[in-house]
Amino acid sequence: MTPDEPRCRTVVVTGASGGIGRAVSVAFAARGDRLALIARGRAGLDGAVREAERAGAAKVVAIEADTADPQAVETAAQRAEEQLGPIDVWVNDAFASVFAPFTQIAPEEFRRVTEVTYLGYVYATGAALRRMLPRDRGVVVQVGSAIAYRGIPLQSAYSGAKHALQGWHEALRCELLASGTRVRATMVQMPAVNTPQFDWVRSCLPERAQPVPPIYQPEVAARAVLYAADHPGRREYWVGGSTVATLVANAVVPGLLDRYLARTGFASQQDGHPRQAGEPDNLFEPADAQRDFGAHGRFDGQARARSVQQRAAHAVGAVADGARRATSAVPRVGAGFAARMRGTRAPRAQDRSV
Q1: Residues 6+ apart with CB under 8 A from 187
Q2: pLDDT tens digit string along 252-308?
Q3: Other C-beta atoms lying within 10 Å of the C-beta of residue 317
Q4: Rounded alpha-carbon distances, angstroms, from residue 235 to 73, 91, 159, 259, 347
Q5: How far is CA 292 from CA 179, 198, 289, 295, in A?
């Protein structure tokens, strides 16, 4: 948190009942923030509330809502402000996916993934901006993915939604910058993360779905979201060496990457164990309505709790922030010195045109 940030903020997190959203909620709670947690599953939400309260949240409100429903999102935003005060940070993380070849995905399944993973972010950001823009303050953090740049086989619906999200985010950011508002939007591109997604995603695969290694723990993702919320000036952040490598390779040799993923993308997204009938499916109904899955999936044994790339990026960012503050102080000091030499006062901030 920067010196200019309030010590206790109102933070809204969508997809808060599990995975990255759950870890993000706990991370903000540990700083004593007020939290509005939005998700569909009651048991998952209740578990998230308990965990956030134990972590130190000033106050927690659980809101059952489907982000694919714009009116439900608007109502959730209104309730968050009524119970917690003006929203300072809004984190979008709710998503849905289908693991299957494109030709095996039904139109209603494709539509549902798009509505949640893309339009859900659009609706939620609109609700946030309708409140932030009149106050001229606030931050929206979009939880993205390396898939926003690099589509992968067996996730065509999710890849398409994340690509759409990336293009929309860029357009929105330009509009915010052009308007002169102090409201900011930034995006965090995530690597493969150990979340319950792979236990409840709709799948047509013969084996259980898994994230493409290397896999990171959701707390790594949460630290990145907190950093982005505190430093929203950058258009986006990349998390994990695998994300950096993937995005660079896609920019330099995309055709070669197509062929590589065609050879490896099917096997790398399955764990070698047959998929069992009757496994949870959260595409149209929440899988955690009766059971709390928590933040972690079943890959704790191989997931990384730290990212060297992330630590380096945050360290570089801290140095850059210090340099900017030092540089911005030089004109003020110089102006004061020159004014004393002339026998006049230096202009105050309110005297200067912006």
Answers
A1: 141, 142, 143, 144, 148, 166, 169, 228, 235, 236, 237
A2: 999 999 999 999 999 999 999 999 888 899 999 999 999 999 999 999 999 999 888
A3: 16
A4: 24, 15, 20, 30, 33
A5: 42, 15, 8, 9
Cα 262 versus chain centre, distance: 28
Residue 7 in contact with residue 34, Cβ under 8 Å? no
What's the rounded Cα separation, in Å, for the pair 314 and 108?
41
User: Are 205 and 180 within 8 A, CB to CB?
Assistant: no
Which residues carry out catalysis?
158
Q: What span, in angstroms and rounded, lies between the C-alpha atoms of 272 and 274?
A: 7
What's the sign of the alpha-carbon dihedral 290, 23, 141, 187? Answer: negative
Residues 48/62, Cβ–Cβ less than 8 Å: yes
Q: Which of 235, 139, 165, 224 is nearest to 190 (CA)?
A: 224
Which amino acid would we find at residue 203? S
Q: Which pLDDT tens digit goes with each residue over 219-246?
A: 999 999 999 999 999 999 999 999 999 9
Rg (CA), the chain: 22
Angle in degrees, 0-180, between the axes of helices 218-230 and 19-29, rounded to the nearest 10: 60
Taking phi over 0 as left and psi of -120 to 50 as alpha, with beta for the rest, 180 belongs to left
